[in-house]
Design a protein that fits this description.
Blueprint: E1 4-10, H1 13-28, E2 32-38, H2 44-52, E3 59-60, H3 70-88, E4 92-96, H4 100-111, E5 116-119, H5 134-144, E6 147-150, H6 153-161, E7 168-170, H7 174-182, H8 192-195, E8 203-208, H9 217-232, E9 237-242, H10 247-257, E10 263-266, H11 271-280, E11 283-286, H12 289-297, E12 302-304, H13 313-317, E13 320-322, H14 327-339, H15 341-347, H16 359-370
The structure holds uridine-diphosphate-N-acetylglucosamine (UD1) and uridine-5'-diphosphate (UDP).
Residues 12-14, 41-45, 66-68, 70, 73, 98-100, 133-134, 210, 212, 245-247 line the site of uridine-diphosphate-N-acetylglucosamine (UD1).
Amino acid sequence: MEKLRIMSVFGTRPEAIKMAPLVRELAAREEMESICCVTAQHREMLDSVLSVFDLKPDRDLDIMTPRQTLSTITSKCLTGMDEAIDALKPDLILVHGDTSTTFAGALSAFYHRVPVGHVEAGLRTYDKYSPYPEEMNRKLVTQIADLYFCPTELNRENLRREAVTEGVFVTGNTVIDALKTTVRTDFAFAAEELNRLPCDRKKIILVTCHRRENYGRPMEDIMSALAHIARTHGEDVEMVYPVHLSPAVQECAKRHLSGIKNVHLIPPLAADEMHNLMARCYLVMTDSGGLQEEAPALGKPVLVLRRETERPEAVTAGTVKLAGVVREDIITMAEELIRDPEAYAAMAHAVNPYGDGNACRRIADAILWHFGRGEKPEDFRPQS
Ligand code: UD1
Ligand code: UDP
């Protein structure tokens, strides 16, 4: 029997981290040929992930430009995908999550009448403009897709409410599969600055921030809050902030946080470095989606620097809180966790609502089942 040609399409850092273990799983299946097409919506940040997970793309559309707009990302992806699909002739195209690469990848597959599998399907905030443009990207992909790999039961329920019930699987999130391969107790960082962090004497706060809907006033307020927290707690807090390469973010972070002695503004970290730093930190403050999934698995409390989240499972489990984007609220919530050991202990416990490390196996099994070549996988169910 001919091998199924499964083409994974991704372009940004988080997609790459979450698709890397899946690309490997597909390559290990003898019924499949795993093809990898990167748009390179991110360049350096994507290449770093490809290197950590030793992935060699079959196609690289190399679309990134400085300060790219949503339209240029989408149109360049669509044009590049035409040639890639014609040349590689996939039986199924996999896209991940909610980026512009995701939307353009799915749309292009549809234009070529190739079925689409949506990895990390069913997340919703029900606010068209937050996260922007991700909420709309993932809703549009829902309309196009044929297979839906939902991380959680709640995500499946979201799809059910939109009358999407065929081809839906609850698999867990592939990010937990990735995390299992990167975190080690004896990990040594490339930079001495990180090896020398006083993790046993001071509270290490790991920060990231990049969302487009936070550009402008919200991001100014977030950075101002972070500066206040670092200055006020100079004796017991060390803040580590690997700054996203977006010029809008770089400028804002440097303006507020440069020159504060207990703030480490550093370049983006490789995925394995980031995961191991998270495993050693005290608290995570972030507007990232991926960090909201990873930190709970590592037992680290998270304050989310957004007004809403499409990942309420860890909020329910008590390890993640929405801090919002108002300066005083962020300061109050962070200071509670810095000063009050009981409040901290109540949040600092490991939970795994997002996966058990077997998401990629379930997705590969579901694809084979869809093509009539295997058993239907069992659903992922978090342990209570
Ligand atoms: C994108 C995704 C967002 C995801 C985020 C993860 C869209 C619209 N947004 O947002 O969903 O959460 O990635 O990080 O798809 N840059 C570099 N080098 C890099 C990466 C980025 O220089 O390796 C700079 C470029 O100037 C680029 C800018 O960052 O124009 C912004 O990148 P872009 O992909 O447009 O948006 P993100 O905010 O990264
Ligand atoms: N990450 C990383 N290096 C960094 C910051 C983040 O490897 O300097 C990882 C992080 O651990 C997670 C993913 O990148 O796996 C999240 O990506 P990002 O925050 O850019 O996007 P989002 O998840 O918000 O879409």
